[in-house]
Design goal:
The chain is mainly alpha-helical. It is built from 6 helices and 4 strands; from the N terminus they run H-H-E-H-E-H-H-H-E-E. Helix 2 crosses helix 3.
Amino acid sequence: PDSLIIKTHFYEINTEYFDFFMGKRMISNKLEELFDMQMRKSGEELKTFHFDLASSIQEITEEAVQSMAGYCIKQTGVKKLVMAGGVALNCVSNGKLLKNNIVDDLWIQPCAGDAGGSLGAALLASHHHLKIPRHHSHHDSQKGSYLGPSFSRKEILRTCDAFNFNYTVEEYDNLVEKISDLIIKGYIFGIFFGRMEYGPRALGSRSIIADARNTEM
């Protein structure tokens, strides 16, 4: 909206506080000294400090993303946005781009992490080095990122039998209600359906689902 004020910010990472570029840890000792807090080990209790830190990082991320999106819109006059890269998988931040009417339409590259760089490399090589022309298409050429293998019911049952898995065969229409009831009871489900998705996000074909309201999860 016209009343929305976009402030452009630029961020740089002070690499003295982080170790993921060259070392084996995400942060350096200097960041621990700054907060007077040791890096939390797996299984250790979450403290208020950890919640506050995560919340602050999320808020700054949202501010930066909205700032950059607003800058791009101001430069181009186009309110349809395509995003890629690991931060593009921040669902809360993306939702606020739409909720705050910063963009009219938003498309996220499904394989938005580092592995998605292979798609960009292939496009660069084909268009710039092999001189293959680009063809604009209104269709989903990426096929929703469902680019992996699929398996027939016969193949799946044969595998289950080979490993002596305990299983029952249900009609698809009964699955939603049955799974919903079991999730409420605390069960965790692995969903294996259709072709495998390409990328770091579960898009429905290979997913683990559970009741997020259950604190044991």
